[in-house]
Specification:
Elements (H helix, E strand, L loop, with lengths): L4 E6 L3 H13 L4 E6 L2 H10 L4 E4 L8 H11 L5 E5 L4 H10 L3 E4 L6 H38 L3 E5 L5 E4 L1 H7 L3 H4 L10 H17 L3 E8 L5 E12 L5 E10 L1 H27 L1 H29 L7 H29 L7 E3 L1 H11 L1 H6 L2 E7 L4 E5 L1 H18 L5 E9 L5 E6 L28 H11 L4 E5 L5 E7 L3 E2 L2
Parallel strand pairs: 1-2, 1-3, 3-4, 4-5, 12-14
Antiparallel strand pairs: 6-7, 6-10, 8-9, 9-10, 11-13, 13-18, 14-15, 15-17, 16-17
Length: 504
Amino acid sequence: MSAPIGILLLEDDPNDARLIEELFEADRFICRITCVQSRTEFLAALEKAEFELILSDYKLPSFDGLSALNLALSVRPDLPFIFVSGTIGEEAAIEALKVGATDYVLKTRMSRLVPAVRRALDEAGDRAARQRAEDSLRRREKELQDVIEAIPAIAFTAQPDGSSVWINRQWVEFSGLTVEETSGSGWQSAIHPDDLIEYAAKWHHSMTSGEPFENEARRRSAKGEYRWFLVRAVPLRDEQGKILKWYGILTDIEDRKRAEQERERLRQLEADLAHTIRVGTMGELAASLAHEIKQPIAAGIISATACRSWLHVDRLNISEAYAAAEGTVSSLTRATDIIDRVRALYGPGKRERELVDVNELVREMTIMLRDAATRNSVTVRTELGTSIPATMADRVQLQQVLMNLTLNGIEAMQKTGGELSVASKTTEDGQLLISVSDTGCGLPADQPERIFKPFFTTKAQGTGMGLSISRRIVESHGGRLWATAKADRGTIFQFTLPGKVTVD
């Protein structure tokens, strides 16, 4: 059974007070009525007892209803206040409602009293429930804000339109900007000018699309220095999916950015060194290249001479002249191809990966190195597998690996001569396996892996970087490079590459 509703009744007429009690009883409205007549009694009752509603006459001998209303609003603003009067006019009633009265009932229409009381209590209950919910929400927000203030990161909240609402003390300490200076669009003043346009565009896109936000930008510290931050923000939505607020966090990535820049600098240095090494082999290959270029040029000269002869008026033969001209074009095209391959191998610059036929690379390298092998009494033999799959690779980098391994093999047999063997095949798991073996002096007896360390060399004029760079190139292609000593004499270098498409 529910407890009786506490009603404070300000009424100086006992008959009217009794009538009010009878109306509640007739409607079976369970209540507890406390009747007072003066300001002193009214104030004492408000401060000492618990009430859910106030009923008041408009005019009393020593007190008036408006004064009672103002007093109630100052002491218990949550209580519904209803005037019950026979003398209140329409203008006075409207004025009372403006001041804060809940309702008014004329004594000539007392049948409205109980419904007005029930409605006022229901509305008061709803207001109390909303107030409790708002108080609970504020407490949770305060607790969340306290947690966010304590975390060792910069955190913020924003309105659905993206304007800043709140940011924690870590931001204030870092930027030197107050929460007020950061609010609205004030946060933009701390972003590096070069990053602001992209950042603002992405932020606007997230605000309009509702997609999570992520961007990297430099922020200015209180000392005037810029540091890189990764900013992420996600929306908080209501049950209907409407965005209520954005929550975000800024993560300092300055150290990561510096590490990336350092890695890029080292990568560029390595690329420059690799280019230098490639250029350094030009002297060793000059004779071979001269021979390879001279052959098609000589053939072109012969064909051109024949063409001129067939065009002579005494021996005019158009078909023979045409055939000779075709031979000239073919020979000079061959010479151009050789020059282009050399330019690609020794030229600097960034290259894109493409499908590469490794067997074709091996053939090109053996031709280019043929003279160097002959001068060192080295026989070059190839064992190239059929239907070898092409691999997605940087053609010039693979040329560099093959050239480095084959030149090393030739140099290992400088004093003794011997045989250099280059082979290719497909492994059981579909990878390419390329091997370069020689019959030279072999690997160092201790720690054969040392040959792949930067600056380790057994050559008087070596840089010690060739094999190190070759291994890096192979690994960057998803493969592996290693070396083993042959059972009889010499060394075998092997490396794998991922296979992609079969080359007929």
